[in-house]
Amino acid sequence: MIEFNVQDMTCGHCASRISKAIIGVDANAKVDIKIEGRTVSVESKATKEELAEAIADAGYTPQAI
Length: 65
Ligand SMILES: [Cu+2]
Fold this sequence. Notes:
There is one protein chain. By secondary structure, the chain is α+β, with helices and mostly antiparallel strands. The protein has one domain: 2-Layer Sandwich (Alpha-Beta Plaits). Strands 2-3-1-4 form a 4-stranded antiparallel sheet, with helices on one face. Strand 2 and strand 3 form a beta hairpin. Helix 1 packs across helix 2. The N and C termini lie close together (about 10 Å). The mean pLDDT is about 100. It binds copper (II) ion. Copper (II) ion binds next to helix 1.
C-alpha cells in the first residue's frame, strides 16, 4: 500500500483527476481516496515515485505518508 497526503485535493473533482492520473500509470491500480482526510491510498505495482509524479502532473501536491 502506497499512501499520500494531498492537501490541495479538496473535492470530488480533484479526487477523480487524481484517480485518473494513477490509472494512467497503472490500469490495474486500486485507488482509495478519502477527500475529508486528504489521503490517497494506492495498491499498485508502480513505484511511489511514479505515482507521486503522476499526481503532481495532474496539478496536485502529493506528500508521502
Ligand atoms: Cu476539487
